[in-house]
Amino acid sequence: MATSDKLSETLADRPDRLSALSHRSPLTGDDGLLMREATHLGKLVLRLAETEAETLKIKALEGAGLPTQPCRSSVSHTGTVSVLWLGPDEWMVVSQAGTEEALQTRLHSELSGRHFQLSNVTDYYTCIDIAGHQNREILMNLSTLDMHNRTFSAGQIKGSIFGHANAYVWQLHTEPGASEIFRLIIRSSMADYLWCLVSRSARLFGMPEDTPISGEKLVI
Amino acid sequence: MFVIDCPWCGERDMSEFSCGGEAHIARPEGSEQMNDEEWAQFVFIRKNSKGRYAERWNHAAGCRRWFNLLRNTATDQILAVYKMGDAEPNVSTEEPVTPSGEAPIGSGNDAVKLMKPGEAL
Ligand SMILES: [Zn+2]
Fold first, then answer.
1. Is residue A211 part of a domain?
2. How far is B65 from chain A (nearest CA, A)?
3. Domains, chain B, ranges and CATH?
4. Which band of pLDDT confidence, cut at 50, 70 and 90, is reported for residue B97?
5. Which residues are in the CB-under-5-Å shell of ion ligand 1?
6. Looking at residue A93, what is its pLDDT?
7. What letter does residue A89 receive in the DSSP assignment?
8. Which of A131, A145, A148, A212 qualifies as a cystine partner to A34, CB 3.0-4.6 A?
9. Are residues A184 and A83 in the same domain?
10. How many distinct structural domains can be found in chain A?
11. Does residue A214 surpass a pLDDT of 80?
12. Are A114 and A129 members of one domain?
């Protein structure tokens, strides 16, 4: 059956697979300022009753529990799987590129018998990483969120509006002393808009002008 | 503009939220027996009071959860935020004080001012 063979082929196997921002190249500025797409990260959305999440230990998550404290995330022992709080009964499991389908299967079998929903949203969202000097200021320009380190620290994840785009902003868990990295999780269809918006904001802080691979112009 | 204290996410700008109208309106029992007037009461007729008003709000850009919010519509003072299913808290607020029940100035924006009788414009 040729059709089922095709369905079982995973997206990660396809060499022609393009990410939402594959036509944009990473931007670098002074003082470690960096902006780039984190491509094809595995993203699963898990819905489960809040009361179950508190006590549940899921082996497939390798030590990362489901955070029950709002706007927090947890990370696995290996550092390869993160669980982000999206709502009191909703989490996003972010894993390394190409691992999401195996992880989804493991989670399904481990959670069977419970009332839950698990969806693969890997290609529905993409991520833009902003690292280096003044990355908080770059984001402050674009949203109403309080980006001060008093209220936004490592591991926190918050949904908000950036320009006209709804996105999540997540400060990655980094080693003490290492530079802070903010990751924007944005719907693929709005990714180019947000990329242009962030790169425009970053220019105020010394980022060079965007020069896209395919020669297209910035729209704003 | 005002800041809303989401029961989960904490204080966020109101642009992240959307308002879902008056709270505590339960769908009537036996709706298959209802006539048009009773349907209109349920679907369209709202208190729309000036002053204390219980509303449903959704944190649309954040956690996407619904909750209730008690607001003074004349001043935009937020009196209470409470979860769906909880009873309306008993909080008092300064109601509009003119004889007609209308504040002569102000309609819920930042520049609003409640006038007291005898107070000069
Ligand atoms: Zn919220």
1. no
2. 7
3. 3-83 (3.30.2270.10)
4. low
5. B 6, 8-9, 59, 62-63
6. 98
7. T
8. A131
9. no
10. 2
11. no
12. no
Check whether A190 has a pLDDT greater than 90: yes
Verify that A69 and A177 share a domain, yes or no: no
Chain B residues interacting with chain A (CB cutoff of 8 angstroms): 8-10, 12-13, 15-16, 60-65
Joined together, the tokens standing for residue A201 give 């904001």
Q: Do residue B8 and residue A160 have CB atoms under 8 angstroms apart?
A: no
Q: Domain containing A92 — which CATH number?
A: 3.30.70.1520
Q: Mutation test of the interface with chain A: which of B16, B58, B65, B81, choosing the one with the most A Cβ atoms within 10 A?
A: B16
Condensed to tens digits (0 to 9), the pLDDT of residues A145-170 reads 999 999 999 999 999 999 999 999 99
What digits encode the pLDDT tens for the residues B24-40?
999 999 999 999 999 99
Residues A30 and A48 in one domain: no
pLDDT at A31 over 70: yes
Instruction: Identify which of B15, B16, B65 has the shortest CB distance to residue A87.
Output: B65
pLDDT band per the 50, 70, 90 thresholds, residue A24:
confident
Domain boundary among A92, A120, A148: A120
Do A29 and A80 lie in a common domain? Answer: no
Nearest to B61 among A71, A88, A159 (CB): A159
Which chain A residue's Cα is nearest to B2? Answer: A144
The answer to whether the CB atoms of B10 and A70 lie below 8 A apart is: yes
Q: Give the one of A70, A90, A161 whose C-beta lies nearest to B16's C-beta.
A: A161
pLDDT reading at B56 higher than 70: yes
Q: What pLDDT score was predicted for residue A6? A: 47
Question: Residue A115's domain spans which residues?
Answer: 42-120
Q: Does residue B75 carry a pLDDT above 70?
A: yes
Specify whether A58 is located in the same domain as A98: yes
Residue of A47, A69, A73, A145 to mutate, interface with B, max B Cβ within 10 Å? A145
How far is the alpha carbon of A111 from chain B, nearest alpha carbon, in Å?
Answer: 23
The pTM is what?
A: 0.87
Arithmetic mean of pLDDT over chain A? 90
Of B120, B43, B52, give the one whose Cα is nearest residue B92: B52
